[in-house]
Structure formats: structure tokens, C-alpha cells
Amino acid sequence: RRVRLEKYRERAAMTKDGHEVSLLANVGNLNDITHLAKTGVDGIGLFRTEFMLMHCSELPDERSQYRLYCDALHALEGQVFTIRTMDIGADKELPCLPLTSEDNPALGLRGLRYSLAHPEMLKTQLRAVLRAANHGHIRLMFPMVNQVEELDRVFALLEECKQELIEEERGFGELSLGIVIETPAAVMNLPSMLPMLDFVSIGTNDLTQYAMAADRANPQLTRDYPTLSPAILRLISMILQSARAQNVRVSLCGELGSDPRLVPLLIGLGLDELSVNTGMALEVKAAICEADYQRCLLLAGQALMADRLEQLNQCITNYK
Ligand code: PEP
Ligand code: MG
Predict the structure, then answer these.
(1) Among 6, 76, 15, which Cα is nearest to 281's?
(2) Which reactions appear under catalytic activity for this entry (predicted)?
(3) Helix (DSSP H) and strand (DSSP E) numbers for the chain
């Protein structure tokens, strides 16, 4: 299998008939970044920055975060670098952050909500990212955004950080800004948020959990609520329609993108980028390179008409 995949490492992620898809990696530590060159991707589509909190006794300060982002930029040598602000919630064990226990952590203070409730902590990260962006381009995205008011608040904090940096005469760079689409509300509110955004990324792990009201970590539910089903497919299609109408780039960073079997369908739906587990990157690239875009478009049209899971799977299996 390794030998079969080896030939794709240096190839561009492009279908047989010349349709390009950007293939990026989901990364959760600095070590992964230094090994990225071996995985054949075009950069990082999701840098899960809360990993910084997993093994430390205190919150990383601005200086150490700035260094980390600069090291990552350096290792990436100009490739895409997408940072997600810390996705913190009571579902995670973080020694340096005693979190208030909640009955429903998935529905509680998490993602951007948590960050907005702790603006000083968020500002430390925003300042570090802005300063690092002076040394290379950074895309910054926010997790668990539901509505435009949350964007107003985080953008106001970004402006505050820029003003402070100007007054302190510190250099900073402009960012590309995006959100992770993880809730049905974000899908419905997308048209009002898109004018403020440069890109969006679909977080199918949480989007599926919240659309189906099915805990993503509960093994009893996975059989009835698989990663892709007609409802999730329609949500993805709605996102793409909204984004296309406003010319905004769409990425997908959930686990779904790491399944090579689903790649032709995802390409056919019109995704511009797939951000995948590093371990699956070559498999996914092979699936992109072996796909025929015209057939992917037909597959997407058929799949969107499937009312049942079985029909949907049949469409996917028939594409060979
Ligand atoms: C997602 O929800 O799909 C996602 C990419 O974020 P995480 O898995 O870190 O929640
Ligand atoms: Mg998520």
C-alpha cells in the first residue's frame, strides 16, 4: 500500500481532468508540523491550539504562543497556515484551567463562547497571532460560532489588539479570517456572516453531533448516525451554495474528509479544500488524483437526491 501511494507524494492534488483541490492537514502539536513535508500536503487547514494547554501547569503567555506560531510558519516555508483559536470546554481535562463542571458540556461554555467569556485569554492569543502574522501569512478561524453578533464581538477585540500593538510600536500582519461551521445555526446564519469572512471550514464532527443531537463520543449512536447521511449532505450543500453566492472559499476539516471513499462526492459538491488527518493524507490525495471531476459532479447531483442512507451509500459505491 505504501508503495502504491508513494508516487502521489510529490504530485499536485488535482483530478485526472485538471480540477484542483487544496489538500491540507489537521494538526495538534508542533511535532506534526515538522513532519508535514513527508505527508504530501499543501499546508495546515486546522491547527488545534488548545493542545498547548494539555500538558502545562499554567496558561501559555503571549511570548510563548508567538514563538510557537513563528516556529510553525518557519517550518511551513510559505505553505498555508490555519490557526483555530482555542476550543476550550468542560468536556476537556485541562490541568491549567479549572473549568466549572456542566451538565451538558457540549451545549455549554465552549469554543468561541468560552473565549468571549474570557476576553483577556482570547486577547493574549489574538495578539500573539497578529504579531506572528508579521512573519508570514496566517489564516485565523474561530470554533463554534453561531451568529453574527459573536463575530462583531471577536472582531472588536481584534481591533483593540491592533490598536494596542500600534501604540506599543510592535509589528503585526493582517490575517485572513474564517469560522468553523459546527452548528445548524451557523449554517442558517451564514449569509449574514460571510461578508465579514475570507473563508469558512466545515467541522463535520460537531456539525453532525449538533444536527443529529447525537453525542459524537457515544459508541451506541455511531451505527444509526454515521459520519455522512442525507441530512448532513444537505447541510454541506447549503453551506456551499451560500458561500458560492458570495465567493467565499470553503474547506472541510472534520473526520469525514479523511475517508478516501467520500472524496469524489466531496469534490463534486464543490469543496475547495480538504483538511485531513496526516495519517490519511496520501490516501486522500490518491483518491483526488484518481477522480474524474465531471463524474464527481454527477455523483454529487445523484447523492443529493438520495432520501435514505442506503441509497446514498449506493451512489458512493457505484462511483468506481
Ligand atoms: C469538527 O468539529 O469537525 C472539528 C474539526 O473540530 P474538533 O474535532 O476539534 O471538534
Ligand atoms: Mg469541533
Answers:
(1) 6
(2) L-histidyl-[protein] + phosphoenolpyruvate = N(pros)-phospho-L-histidyl-[protein] + pyruvate
(3) 14, 8
Separation of CA 19 from chain center: 21
Reported ipTM exceeds the 0.95 cut:
yes
Cα of 204 to ligand 1 centre, how many Å? Answer: 7
Q: What nine digits make up the cell of 319?
A: 462511483
| Residue 253 designated active-site | yes
For residue 145, CA distances in Å to 13, 92, 192, 268 come to: 30, 19, 13, 26
Compute, in angstroms, the gap from residue 252 CA to the centroid of ligand 1: 10
Cell 490518491 locates to: 286
Q: Given the CA of residue 206, which atom of ligand 1 is nearest to it?
A: 2
Is 302 strand, coil or helix?
helix
Which three cell numbers, joined as nine digits, stand for 145? 460560532
State the pTM of this model.
Answer: 0.97
- Show the cell assigned to 177: 479570517
Q: How far apart are CA 114 and CA 122, in angstroms?
A: 9
Q: How far is the CA of 198 from the centre of ligand 1 (A)?
A: 20
216 is in an annotated binding site: yes
Q: Which residues contact ligand 1 via a Cβ below 6 A? A: 46, 48, 87, 182, 203-206, 253-254
The answer to whether the annotation marks 11 as part of a ligand binding site is no
CA distance 137 to 69: 11
